[in-house]
Amino acid sequence: MTDRSSGPPRLEAEAFHVNAAGRRVPMDVNGHVALPFEGVGMHRPAGPKHGPPIRSCSGYPANGDKRVPDLKTALERCGLRDGMTISSHHHLRNGDRVALKALNAAAELGARDLMWFPSASFPCHEPVIDLMEQGVVHHIEGSMNGPLGAYCSRGRMSGLGVLRSHGGRWQAIQDGEVPVDIAVIAAPSADAFGNANGSHGPSACGSLGFALADSIYADHVIVVTDNLVDFPCVPWQIQGNNVDFVVEVDSIGDPSKIVSGTTQITRSPDRLLIAEYVARFLRDAGIVRDGFSFQAGAGGIALAFVGFIREIMREQGVKARFVRGGSTSYLVELLEEGLTDYILDGQTFDLAAVESIATNPHHLPTSPFTSYNWHGKGNFASMVDAVVLGATEVDVSFNANVVTHSDGMLLHGIGGWQNCLAAGCTILALPAFRDRIPVVVDEVTTLTGPGELIDVVVTERGIAVNPRRTDLLDVLQQNDTDLPIRPIEEIKAEIEQLVGGPPRKPELIDQPVAVVKWVDGTVLDTVWQVPDAPGLGG
Hints:
Blueprint: E1 16-18, E2 24-26, E3 28-29, E4 32-33, E5 67-68, H1 71-77, E6 85-88, H2 98-108, E7 114-118, H3 128-133, E8 137-140, H4 146-153, E9 161-163, H5 166-174, E10 182-187, E11 189-190, E12 196-197, H6 212-217, E13 220-225, E14 245-248, H7 255-258, H8 269-284, E15 293-296, H9 300-316, E16 320-327, H10 329-337, E17 340-348, H11 351-359, E18 363-365, H12 368-372, E19 386-389, E20 393-395, E21 400-401, H13 417-420, E22 425-429, E23 433-434, E24 437-438, E25 440-441, E26 456-459, E27 462-465, H14 470-478, H15 488-499, E28 509-517, E29 523-529
Parallel strand pairs: 5-14, 6-7, 6-10, 7-8, 9-28, 10-13, 13-14, 15-16, 15-19, 16-17, 17-18, 19-22, 20-25, 22-26
Antiparallel strand pairs: 1-2, 3-4, 11-12, 20-21, 23-24, 26-27, 28-29
């Protein structure tokens, strides 16, 4: 492996700007002017949406058959050249085989300095490191965790990583901030015309919502499938009119790693208590009522919360109008029991949810455009009454971090986390400490979400309500709640007493390796290089 340890170009002090959140951010990101974060809701876009070149049906087969023999042929016919942006989606999660097939095919064709633009990456994408070492991939604009996160954090990547939320990624594509040259869409089912869905076939993953922007706005679109069906492939989530070529392969992914049979509720007594506190908080704050809505993820605490809120809904005889998620069997059970009218599904996490989205008309696939895009005419996220999220750190100003460890190492991407902060009540449910490292700190290592949008922090040591939310505090008092409502500073002090003091500030090198974008495309924070250390990999 060739050493490419020079990393991104070193920036001088004058190349940075202090943004509205007080964070020092670069003014240039990979050769493009970067707008610093101006405050929540302050940046307003101007101009038209981006669009792909106009093409004519005369350039495509009259019989609708767009199949080509392999990915190399498809990439060649898309005009692959050095410096292009190739996108992929993550609905296949750690079972994905298509992104690497595409990037390796590009390498065989001699392409250099590509930008890989995934909606998320997983440990299965570790071989992309070899492609970066070879100069095939210049940098990644998308989530990086595990080996990819370590590689970027150590300053090994040639360009700056750019971390966006799911909605921020759609915004970047639609606004032309990231022109996608070639989108490669893995499709569990497709026809020869390019219509495709994720809900059927041996590699079924549920929704394909994260690939929808790529299909609409990319200059060229390639659909890759291991389940070619006769026209029409219905229901189509990707429309064939947007597709240039279709490639049939033996397998687009490992089904065992795409979804699990069941996603597991936490068994930790502390975490179960946190989940119970969250459900009781929503009850005591008057949020649980007929026709309310909520969103919860697929983590252990979130799944346990769904179980507790289900019991409260039964007790009170209320029904949700809709629930949002990453869908799981637990949300499916709510739907089947009649405790919610609809599931609005962003991505599908287990086999029960995959089956439900394929068969139940009240289980609807959505995309980041409808759910999360700040540069749209509204979105579902702001219509959700309560959302339950996690975090790696939260500080006494309620700012939160989800992208780096306490040591500054890239942990994972933002996902829909930032976008969910638009909900009526945003709750962070998290253990007081991990590996004896406090989760509540004076200042977060990396700012991912401004504290003014985070309403409640729930730990096993107590519940902190953001002082901005006097309405919540008033209702809790009126309802004479017995929940342990405490100032966040008091919870922090107790945690530090338990673990022997506050955590050490990470020792970081004054060189950016990535930036965190806010939902409007402005730069919220900088991810700084970590020192080399044994066992970091990459």
